[in-house]
TrEMBL record:
GO terms for molecular function: transmembrane transporter activity. SUPFAM superfamilies: HlyD-like secretion proteins. It is found in: Cell envelope. Residues 101-135 form a coiled coil. Residues 508-536 are annotated as: Disordered. Residues 75-152 form the YknX-like barrel-sandwich hybrid domain. One of its GO terms (cellular component) is cell envelope. Residues 517-536 have a biased composition (Gly residues). This is Efflux RND transporter periplasmic adaptor subunit.
Amino acid sequence: MKMMKKKYAKPLLITLICLIAIGAGYFWLSSRKEQKASASSAQVVMPVEKGSIINKASGTGNIASSVRKEIKTLDNGIVDEIFVEEGQSVQEGDKILTFQNEQAESQLESARLSLEIQENKLAELNRDLAELKVYAPAAGVVGAINTEEGEDVSGGFALTSITDKKSLEITGVFNAAQIKHIRVGNQAQIVLIDSFATIKGTVTDVGTSPVDSSDSTVGYEVTVVVPNQGGLSAGMTAQVTVTSGEGSYQAADSATLENKSPKTVSLKTGGTVQKLYVEEGDTVKKGDLLASLESQSLANDIKTQKLEIEQSRLNLQEVMETMDDMVVYAPISGVISEVDVTAGERVSENSTVAVVSDMNALELVIPVDELDINNVTLGMPATITVNSVPDTEFKAAVTEIAKEGTVENGVATFDVTLTLKNIEGLKPGMSATGEVIITQKENILTVPVEAIQQRGKEKFVLVRKEGKDEPVVVKVGLVSEEMAEITEGLKEGDQVVYTLSSADSNSRSARVMMMGPGPGGGSGGGNRTGSGRSGN
């Protein structure tokens, strides 16, 4: 019997030891799993707070001018002179460069001279037209009229004469020593020999041709006009004395008063006498109209000459347009961003020679993911940050959305143009990041997205009440990558419980720090946040 007991006791002991070892191993493994689970996740309790959620679509690109014009040639030729350089500001219409064209320059000068000649001819014809009106050259009495109305007369024809009977003339002879001091306009005293009366007169002519004097010396004639206020008549003898700035000078001999010589009225252009306004014996003043003529041939000449001028102007305009093709102008105001030619270079028609950009109109084009593009609309507000202008946020707006996307690695993006509203400190070419604000809500109840759980069609969160975690059904509004809006089911201050992995916990801590503590929350969003999603 004892032998039997010993025979079965040893295997039982071995079995028992194995069971104890297995149990210990299982306990150890279970303990390790719990430790690892505890280390890889953490339970977070967070109050429901009011804050904001902003969903954005963002992308990077380079600042560029939204108005950029290539300056092209209208003709081919050799670049003569360049008036701008890169970086130079220009105004619309400023000269950019010119081309060599000696033939066109010669044609231009010829056309200008031709027009000038034709205009001079018209001016001469218009002067002839004005001469068809005949005016009195001086005051006096009209002599015989040498024509009648309806008669054709030619240029140079003596129409009549006018005699001034309100004044007389007297001519005295002065020697060479005296004549050099006498000038037209000097005053003169006329002493009548018979009565010794003195009358004032004015020198109207100083002769330059020598005449014989009574004392056998060389003399010069001086004509003096004397107003006749009555009592004077032709034939009276008088002594002439002229007073100038250098002294008084008396003529060598006495002289005789005479009527003034009649002034002949000659026509300067020919025509048909249309009307005579005076008769022989009429007294007229200087400038009175004596007669008017008409000339059909002159009218025709003027009409033809005007057509010649118009043709010359058209010719000049045509040559100038050709010359304009030889000059390249700035199409807009801005800054020259490129100069693509050099002086002496031959270029062909429609070649780009320079580029001008409007630096007051800048834009940024960013690629937006296909998941977000339908939520982006024209006019949406945007912000732009630029690496080279730190701590500054530039306002912009969506002004253009590409209708066709670009596919890369199976993912489509669409170019969205953001036009800047303030450009101070910005230059084309700068690297920038643009963000389009797709959806934004302020002062709403928010919870972390990790707190939202779903069972069937219902969404719920765990709320800690009196130490117990109870599920509460909620309605979810706008959702970003980080935060969710609660529209029903919770109130501000409720304690929400959720589990956060250690990796998510670190990320969450960083995000919470960025959003700032306390009410007001933060904004969700990332490189591609999309518009808000809503749930029930």
